[in-house]
Amino acid sequence: MFGVVLAAAMAFGQTVEMVKGVRLVHNDKDGLWGKKPKIQLKLIRTLGDVNADDEALAFYMPSGLALDSQGNLYILDTGNHRIQKFGPDGDFLASLGRQGQGPGEFSYPDSIDIDSSGLIWVSDPHNKRIQVLTAEGKEAKTLSFVDERVGNIRCTKSGLVMAGGMGGFLVFRPGMEEKENALPRLFKMLDGEGNVLGEYGEPYDFRHTLLNTMGNQIKFAVDAEGAVYLAYLYQNRVEKYSPQGKLVWRADRKLDYSLEVPKDKGRLEAKGGGISVRMPRLNQCANGIAVDSAGRVWVVTMTRQAKEDEQVGVAMSMMVTGGERKMSMKVQGNTEIQKTDMYKLEIFNHEGVLLGSLAVDHFIDGIAVKGPRLFLWDGMRGAKFYEYRIEEK
Predict the structure, then answer these.
(1) pTM of the entire structure?
(2) Is there a contact between 100 and 147 (Cβ–Cβ < 8 Å)?
(3) Per-residue burial over 233-247, b = 16 or more CB atoms within 10 Å of its CB, e = otherwise
(4) pLDDT score of 167
(5) Would strands 73-77 and 82-86 be described as parallel, antiparallel, or unpaired?
(6) Which residue from 99, 159, 86 is spatially nearest to 126, judged by alpha carbons?
(7) How far is CA 147 from the centre of its chain?
(8) Pairing state of beta strands 22-27 and 247-253?
(9) How far is CA 55 from the centre of its chain?
(10) Which helix (DSSP H) or strand (DSSP E) does residue 299 occupy?
């Protein structure tokens, strides 16, 4: 699928190939550590709960977090159109933002990061912009994007911003599901003013618009040197790109389920002047990625597919009244279940070799790591953040 093998080697259950200068790593199931991981996670605290009485902790569809140089935690509370700021010990400090279109206001923001100068970058896709705020929530600058899909954002120490992944919505038209359109790259490199410096990432062409849209969804992370790591949600691919956007390695691993493309590829239909979209049913294999200070790559990996009573989703509605657009989002499905064995954390080394995995007993919609602090969050069910400490054995 990806080229001609030039060289191959076997080591510790991994097959390593060099294909056109790219390192391909095919990992065995258990990794180098086998059944005895060399690291462990200790739960320190949780923040938030779907049934919290404290308004400061009553998150709704939270979608990310960022930490500043003092260890303060900024939680992107998407469904409440705000940022909740907590101290390093978990004490609530401030609420930043509200719903709206003005400076410091949001409409379902979907990504957050903090740059080296302490400014808060927020992707606000439904207002078609990135807002850059001070630590107090005041507008530092706003980058407008009329035609670009920004998606998730990650700041680098060099002052550049990587953007892409799962943000925004495509515009569909009836009859386009079978057409072969040029596939967009998976992430962009932006300067501090929002100018696109380059586009990178190699999508796989399923030769079907709906499959391409869903099958190439990614989550990504950036390390201290500016390298970019991609985890594909519906493909068995984990990748590293250099700070210049060159593919360095691609890794896969053995899974307990198939990622075969189904016969039912979804459907686009025109209904009452609108468009009805039914996406294909693809098995999911990942749901987050992060890089720690030791260069290890953490991937949120599915151990199995969701059972019927574990499935949730987001219903979106939009109305235009007097030229003003109003949008609402609501979680649908069973949000009562908060414990599951559906996820694990796979840990790869800096060359794409699977070291091992750690079991997790709750739902995971994202991951972040800074120093020994590792955060996982359940945004769709418990609306809760879990803070762990990484401990070396």
Answers:
(1) 0.92
(2) no
(3) bbbbbbbbbebebeb
(4) 39
(5) antiparallel
(6) 99
(7) 22
(8) parallel
(9) 26
(10) strand 297-302
> What is the H or E stretch that residue 209 is in?
helix 209-215
Contact in structure between 357 and 346 (CB atoms under 8 Å): yes
Are the C-beta atoms of residues 9 and 344 closer than 8 Å to each other? no
**Given the DSSP bridges, would you call strands 111-114 and 120-124 parallel, antiparallel or unpaired?**
antiparallel
Model pLDDT for residues 54-98, shown as the tens digit of each residue: 999 999 999 999 999 999 999 999 999 999 999 999 999 999 999
Q: What percent of the chain has pLDDT over 90?
A: 76
Quick one: pLDDT at residue 209? 85
**pLDDT over 60 at 7, yes or no:** no
Q: What are the tokens at 85?
A: 């700021």
CB-CB contact of 301 with 343 (8 Å): yes
Neighbours of 144 (CB within 10 A): 10
Q: Which residue, among 118, 109, 108, 144, has the nearest Cα to 66 in the 3D structure?
A: 118
CA distance 281 to 265: 7
First to last CA, the chain: 39
For residue 177, pLDDT beyond 50: no
Backbone phi, psi, residue 84, to 5°: -105, 125
Please report the pLDDT score of residue 239 as a whole number: 98
Question: Do residues 221 and 206 lie in contact, with contact meaning Cβ atoms separated by under 8 Å?
Answer: no
Longest Cα–Cα distance of the chain, Å, equals 65
CB 348 within 8 A of CB 363: no
Q: Phi and psi for 165 in degrees, rounded to 5?
A: 90, -125
Determine contact, residues 42/388, Cβ cutoff 8 Å. yes
Note whether 210 and 282 are within 8 A (CB).
no
The pLDDT of 354-377, averaged and rounded, is 97
Looking at residue 175, its pLDDT comes to: 52
- 92 in Cβ contact with 56 (< 8 Å): yes
